[in-house]
Amino acid sequence: MESQIKKIHQQLVSKQITCTALVQEKLELLKQNTYNSVNSLLDTLALDLAAKVDAKIANDEEIGLLEGIPFGIKDVYMVQGTYTTASSDLLKKYKSAYTATAIQKLLDAGAIPLVKENCDSFGHGSSSENTIFGAVKNAINPELVSGGSSGGSAVNVAKEYTVFSIGGDTGGSVRQPAGYNNIYGLKPSYGRISRYGLMAYASSTDCVGPLAKSIEDIRIVLNVMSGKDGRDQTSYVSEEISEASVLESKEIKTVGYFKNFIESEAIAPQVKADFLASIEKIKAKGIEVKELDFFKSDTLVSTYYTLAMAETASNLSRLDGTNYGNRIEGENLKDTYSITRSENFSEETKRRIVGGNQVLSQGFSDAIYLKGLALRDQISANFDKDFKEVDVILSPVTPASPPKIGDSLNDPLAMYLSDAYTVGFSLGQLPTLTVPQGTVTGMQVTAAKNNDATVLKFANFLKDTL
Predict the structure, then answer these.
(1) Are 191 and 137 in contact (CB under 8 A)?
(2) Is 15 a catalytic site residue?
(3) What's residue 116's pLDDT?
(4) Edge to edge, what strands does the sheet with 288-292 contain?
(5) Local structure of 257: helix, strand or coil
(6) 95 by DSSP, 3-state: which?
C-alpha cells in the first residue's frame, strides 16, 4: 500500500537521505509557509533527535518504521518543555510540564515532532479562525477556511510540511478539515487512544486522531498510539490492525447511508449529486446499499452542542489565571477572575462557556442537559440497530464546500451547522474516517464501535472504486 512513512524509512535506511537534511527541509517549509498553520517550531528538539537517528544509521544499527519520520502536533497536546497555547491569549506563554500519552508513544517509536499547529482556540470552532495566530488558510484555495478545529494539522499534511499530524476530534475536528484539504483524517473509536495530555474540550467525545495522505500511514500511526493507559480510565486494550487485513474488503457486503442527510435542504446540490453518483459506483461493485433513517441534523447539532458546551464550561472552569495562564489583576479576587477570563478567552469560547453554564444551571438542567443525555442514548441505540443491518455507513463530511475566510465568524450558527454530518458519529463514539473521494469535501466511512479495521478496509476499497 502507498505510504510516505515507508518510502522515507527506506530512503533513510538505504542512506539516500539523512534525517537531519529531511528535518531541516521540513522546518524551512514550515518557516516560509503563508497559511498560518504554525504556532511554534520545535526546531532544536527536532534537529537533536534527527542527529541521533543519523548516528544510528551511520553505525548500521536498525531503526524502527517511525524512527526519523517528521510529524506535527495540534497545539492542544502537552509536550514537556514546549509551548502549549491552545491558540489562546490565556495560555500563550504556558509551557507543558509533561507529555501526552499518545505523543509520548510516537516519541518512543522515534518519530520527530516539528511543530505545534494552529487551531481554533481550545478546539472551539469549525474553521480555525478563532485563534490568536491568524486564520489558517485552506491548502487548496487560500481564500477559503481550512476547517477546524484541527485546521493547521490538516494544512501541514496537505502541503507536505509534515508527513503526518496529530489532531483532536470532538465533533468533527479532524474529519472536517481533512475533507476541506483533501486528505485522510481518522476519529478512532472513543477510548482506543488515551486522552491523557490532550486539553479537554468535551471529555465524553474527545478523541486523538491522525491525519495523513494515505490509509497505510493512518494505520501505522493508529497502531502506535493505541492502547490502555492507566491515566485514562476510558482507554482500553485494542488489537493491532495489520496491513494484510486492510486489503481484505470482501467481507464488507452491505453499506448504508442516512436518507435524511441526502434529502436535507441544507445539502449543496453538487455534494448531493456527487454522493449519489458514488453510491451507484459502489452498487456496481456488487455491494448492497441500504437507505437508513436517522435523527434530523438539527437534532444532532443541538444535542451535541448542548453536551459539549456543558462539558467545556466545566473543563475550562480551572482556567482563571491562578495556577497557570495569563493572569490580569483586578481590584479583588473575584474581579481578577472575571477580567482574566473576559480578556483572555475568545468570543467563541466565551459563547460556549456561557451556553454550557446555562444548560447546567438550576431550572434548565432537567429540561435541557438531561434531555441531551437521553437523546445521546437514543442516538447510540439507533447506531446499534443500524449496524445489525449494514457493515459500514457512508455520509458526506459536510453539507457544502468550505466557506470564505471571515464568513463563519459573522455567522456562528452557520459554523455549528457545518458539523451536521459529523457530530452524530461523535455522540455514538464510533470510528469514522474521512476519505478524499466521493464529494468535493470527501466522504466519511463509519463502522460499529471498536471496528476501526473495518473503516480502513472500506476506505481502501473506495480508493480503488471512486
Answers:
(1) no
(2) no
(3) 98
(4) 38-41, 112-117, 70-74, 164-169, 207-212, 184-187, 432-435, 443-446, 392-396, 254-258, 288-292
(5) strand
(6) strand
CA angle at 397 for the pair 391 and 402, rounded to the nearest 5° = 170
- pLDDT at 413 > cutoff 80: no
- Is a pLDDT exceeding 90 seen at residue 170? yes
Contact 440, 403 (CB under 8 A): no
pLDDT of residue 364: 84
Among the listed residues 3, 26, 37, 74, the single catalytic one is 74
CB 349 within 8 Å of CB 130: yes
Nearest to 69 by CA among 50, 91, 86: 50
337-387 pLDDT per residue, tens? 899 999 999 999 999 999 999 999 988 888 899 999 999 999 999 999 999
DSSP 8-state secondary structure symbol assigned to residue 258: E
Cell 510540511, residue?
161
- On the CB side of 202, CA atoms within 13 Å amount to 27
Q: Exposed (0-12), middle (13-18) or buried (19+): which is 230, by Cβ within 10 Å?
A: exposed
Active site residue 173: yes
Q: Which of 131, 125, 111 is nearest to 225 (CA)?
A: 111
185 in Cβ contact with 209 (< 8 Å)? yes
pLDDT mean over 328-332? 93
Instruction: Please report the pLDDT score of residue 225 as a whole number.
Output: 98
26 is catalytic: no
Question: 209 Cβ partners below 8 Å, 6+ apart?
Answer: 150, 166, 167, 168, 169, 174, 175, 185, 186, 187, 188, 193
pLDDT score, position 410: 78
CB 254 within 8 A of CB 288: yes
Per the prediction, the chain carries an average pLDDT of 96
The residues spanned by each domain of the chain are 4-246
* Of the options 3.40.50.10330, 3.30.390.50, 3.90.1300.10, 3.30.450.40, the CATH number for the domain spanning 4-246: 3.90.1300.10
Amino acid letter, 296: K
Q: What is the largest CA-CA distance in the chain?
A: 72
With contact defined as beta carbons under 8 Å apart, do 225 and 191 qualify? no
Other CB atoms closer than 10 Å to residue 137's CB: what's the count?
21
Catalytic residue among 3, 37, 127, 149: 149
Per-residue pLDDT of 188-242, as tens digits, reads 999 999 999 999 999 999 999 999 999 999 999 999 999 999 999 999 999 999 9
pLDDT at residue 44 above 80? yes
Residue 450, pLDDT above cutoff 90: yes
C-alpha cell read off for 393: 455507513
Q: What is the pTM of this model?
A: 0.97
Q: 64 φ, ψ to 5°? A: -70, 165
Catalytic residue among 87, 127, 128, 173: 173
